[in-house]
Amino acid sequence: MLRATVGCVQERDEEQEDEGEEELRDGGVPFYVNRGGLPVDEETWERMWRHVARIHPNGEALGKEIRGATDLPKIPIPSVPTYQPTTTVPQRLEAIQKYIRELQYNHTGTQFFEIKKSRPLTALMDIAKEMTREALPIKCLEAVILGIYLTNSMPGVERFPLSFQSHFSGNHFHHIVLGVHSGGRFGALGISRREDLMFKPLEFRTLMDLVQEFEGAYRGYWHTLRKVRIGQYVSHDPHSVEQIEWKHSILDVDKLTKEELRKELERHTRDMRLKIGKPAPPSPTKDRRNSMGSPLRGQNSPIRRISRVERRPSGEKKVLEQKPSTDLNGYQIRV
């Protein structure tokens, strides 16, 4: 189903954006999502080619030429990166980015893998596995899920969603990358049609430095960066039933001074550090996972909007009341 219309993109409410609504435009042009899985069914396949004919300057002729060809070259399937024990974290991230690049950016106007942001992490990791098997071109949101999957085995690397809303020529544009943090430095993984709007090496000292790097890239394309949305660190447990917190902080860049933006990003960095030591909910058993649906957002993971009027307070440690051990006769009760 086509969820967006051509022209100026109106502001969407938070519920729509949580379902990935903001990702259904590619450079201001609406695109379809393959919701029928793989292999692609006949209806989706024909719809994709009709869409190509509409959006490409020579779309109809191009489609006939490709579909009628009998000697198309075989596309090589990229290999999922493997590492030696001595491979450093920056080298591993570069290898992951190289793999994402080799899959190539999807220009067809149909996203092949359906990504629902409200799904639990374990379900999204299953989709990432399918991406590695099918080796099809991907868009930016798919690259974020794939990046999480490929870095799950790197406990020293923290990952978080980092999305941008820019404005150009009357249109709003949305993009997302996977922010990474390791060894006191920030970087990013992802895919884009623009070389400087995806991978960033692990060399930025603060989150502010990383955001400014992307803002400078947007200026190079005459885009004005309007909003930055930053999520929390993502669990390394591929079987976790947690939902990814996509937008823990929402910053109106064009309404904040440079110093105010820096302070808000520092606050968010502290919030992410506080989450590291918190225990994640237990993963379900294998039998339970097979019959489990997507959990609803609970009260423990609220969406917090950031503005100049209402700001998120710095994280404070919650002091728990100590119960005397004699109440439990020296035993711990586990539920």
From TrEMBL:
Residues 1-28, 267-335 are annotated as: Disordered. InterPro entries: VASH1. GO terms for biological process: regulation of angiogenesis. Residues 12-24 have a biased composition (Acidic residues). Residues 307-321 have a biased composition (Basic and acidic residues). The active site is at C140, H175, S192. Keywords: Carboxypeptidase, Hydrolase, Protease. It comes from the Eukaryota. Residues 291-302 have a biased composition (Polar residues). GO terms for cellular component: cytoplasm. GO terms for molecular function: carboxypeptidase activity. PANTHER family: TUBULINYL-TYR CARBOXYPEPTIDASE 1, VASOHIBIN-1-LIKE ISOFORM X2. This is Tubulinyl-Tyr carboxypeptidase 1. It comes from Xyrichtys novacula. The lineage of its organism: Eukaryota, Metazoa, Chordata, Craniata, Vertebrata.
